[in-house]
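Hey Z.,

So I finally got round to the adenosine-5'-diphosphate thing we talked about over coffee. Here's the setup:
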Amino acid sequence: MEKLYEGKSKICYSTKNENELKIFFKNDVTAFNSLKKASYESKGLLTAKISNIIFKYLEKNGVKTHTIKVLDEQNVLVKKLKMFPLEIIIRNVAAGSIVKRLGIEQGTAFDKPIFEICYKNDTYGDPLINDDHCVVLNLATVKQLEEIKKVTLKINQLLIELFKQINIKVVDFKIELGLDKDNNICLGDEISPDTCRFWDQNNRKLDKDCFREDLDDITAIYLIILEKLESLNI
Ligand code: ADP
Ligand code: TMP
Ligand code: ASP
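And the result:
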């Protein structure tokens, strides 16, 4: 299998089928556009397992995802998607960049989810853009944006319900979507504590902020999330 792309936390390999990819979850973790880097044994296994459980749950609840088959603890066979060069973010509670950008107090719960679009481009630091940028710059059509927003809000609702069962708040998250060979919008990439903010009842951070802010050993924290999700037997 040929390595097609190595990103910050995953590697994509070609397979015998041109419409499929194998994705390997690395042990590397980065933050602040790779200014901070580390590697932890078992980190890739933890994000892969967590993401696989979440994708299985979403698929069961009517969300189209890229997953074809979990191959082993760190490798997943997926549909090769034509990815939108976008990072779609939902915020239920203020944290991270919105706190710095708009001066909102961390922990402020929003009356309705805030939907944000960023242009996925590390050179420019994944800048925040709006619908017009997407359409005029041919990143997505008006119709695709409508569907992206609809599916993202559905994923948010499903994630909130899932994590409520284990007493965890979904503060915010980032997803990436793409088109399959039949032009259906599908959820790609991953959903894990690397790409979300999760807080427990005491607002203890159970996600990559533990690495960003040097709060905790992320493998111990991610294991808490994995064990709680596994207890739900999805
Ligand atoms: P990054 O590119 O941000 O460093 P990763 O290390 O997570 O990220 O690399 C995974 C890459 O694979 C990302 O660029 C992501 O957009 C892409 N990707 C994820 N799922 C799919 C898919 N099903 N088909 C094609 N590309 C995908
Ligand atoms: P932010 O507050 O830093 O903008 O992040 C919002 C959400 O998106 C948060 O859950 C972390 C996630 N995220 C990623 O998954 N990848 C990224 O590159 C960034 C900047 C954020
Ligand atoms: N994913 C980005 C990076 O790897 C930023 C972050 O998640 O904080 O640098």
